[in-house]
Amino acid sequence: MEQKQKLFTELRWIYTTTKEYPCAIRIRIRMRDLVDPDVFRNAVDTTMGRYPYFCVELQKTDGQYCFVQNHRPVVITNSPHGVELNSKDSNYHMIAFSWWDNWIMLEVFHGMTDGAGAYEVIGTLLHYYCSERYNIALSEEGVRLLGDDIPAEEWADPMANRTDLPVPSRNQMPTALGLISSAGLQSDTRHTVYSVAISEAEFMRFTTKNNGSPATMVSLLFSRAINKLYPDSKDVIRVSLCVNQRDALHAPLAHQSLVGGAFLEYGEQMRDLPLNEQAPIYRKMVSEQTQEDAVLMGVASQSGIAHMILSKESDQERIELAKAIGSVAQSVITVTVSYVGKANFKGAEQYVRDFRLWTSSASNGITIEMSAVNGRFILDFIQVFSSPLFVNAFLKELEENEIVYDLQDVCDLELPNIKLPWAE
């Protein structure tokens, strides 16, 4: 079992995380009943025994950062707020858990894993928690469990040692329509989450009828909403749809944060078409950009960024480089949409009443995190401002298409800070 992990995929995330925009994932799950803290402690301890590559501490050796095994207990707090990661409060772990009433929460450094990797941890946690909490024998099929033989493919970074990646494209995309500047929201800096629930069965019928898919349909409805708000804008409406790179890397078991993007442009030639003709255009864009060669081009770009970061001597130089690259990337995106896929937490899912996946929104506006759990789609509109302007425009699109929705709540975005050596 690997005891020291040199950082590579993680580097871009390490050097872009800040207190204002922490690179973290916070998953909040409302259970059917109040949380039993003793059962939850047992479930967390058993779960983390299955994921030794998440039980790590950030250290610097020979001038390079790495993850080393951290044998301290993973922290659980009875609080809705969680703890600072990579600090004394988290026992220097990059992962922590908390509970409050009937909510359980997982917080993890996004550079260590992505939504797909976090779902695996949640699946294991819910299996152990619900089995003991409700004294039932849940099926073990498809669930990662303590005692499994953990293959090397779960540990290895599939991007780190690739030498056969294609030369990344240097095509420069035109600037995209910016939500903050278009709406004049520069002074509105309250990071906010609007959570919207839709029946999974109803939305799937709607998307199928209109030749779409869940993520492309949400992308399209949002694009239509923005176009109606700013019909005369000369800037293109461009959605960045997150893409899981594992298939293209032939690394389905990898735990790292392996996220690329497909760019969906709401071009003039499609704006006057009916929705059922627009949806296939977006699907075609996704199909073309998720072919293996196209995804590997994105991997090559990310690998190049990691090598550029490693070429810099000081942490400050690396931070400045990562910030500059991030600014360029954000200027070509109107909104980001992320959908891990149907959660499928097996028999434990019947005990889940609500599910939220929060991340830091890109500083240019909104990230829409989609979750499909226990018969519902939850859309978390994660904003760097509080205005409901764009959410309301999206909800109007749902209404016009006779899609029933429930605005669950509006919350201040709360993510854990990640304490880093140069920020001390």
Describe the structure in brief.
With 424 residues, the protein is α+β, with helices and mostly antiparallel strands. Helices cover 33% and strands 24% of the residues.
Explain the overall architecture.
The protein is built from 12 helices and 15 strands. It is globular. With 424 residues, it is α+β, with helices and mostly antiparallel strands. The mean pLDDT is 94.
Mean pLDDT: 94
Shape label: globular
Structural classification = alpha+beta
Q: What is the CA-CA span between the terminal residues?
A: 32 Å
Care to count the β-strands? 15
| Major sheet details | 7 strands, mixed
Labels describing this entry:
five-stranded mixed β-sheet; globular; alpha+beta; 424 residues; 12 helices; seven-stranded mixed β-sheet; 33% helix
